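ok so I'm stuck.
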Amino acid sequence: MAEHDLRSNFVFAPPEDDPAAWQASAETFRDALERAFPDAFLEANTSTLRDVPVLDFEIEVAPDVFVTGTAAMPAPDYAHVSIIDVTAHAAALFAQWLRDTYVPSPASVRFLSSFVMENGNEAPWPLPATGDATEIEAVLRRHLAAAGAE
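replied:
not stuck anymore, here's the structure
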């Protein structure tokens, strides 16, 4: 499979040493998605894993580039957003929006992919605090490539 076709799930979360850094809630995340993506599909549900409220969403981050995910933000000290079965390109577009529009500090986002976790590495990487989606995509690709190097 070509590198640009590799698909994975990505999880974005606040720093481990400051889990309340995002000051997140399902309501503020829903509002941010609605403002940025007026045609978003949004549905409140309950996580079967943790029995907490979650927000499922599908958004178009660029023309014909869709991202499906789930946000779990039941308490200020617990937040994460998962996006499902995306390329590094689509994940980078979403990550840039999350970093630049939703979280209060651009240095407060870390990420991990299911592809890397399946290969035995569960250490999150910091999302770059600056740069555009192309630069974020390069970091996500390095992250995915790191799994193959182990």
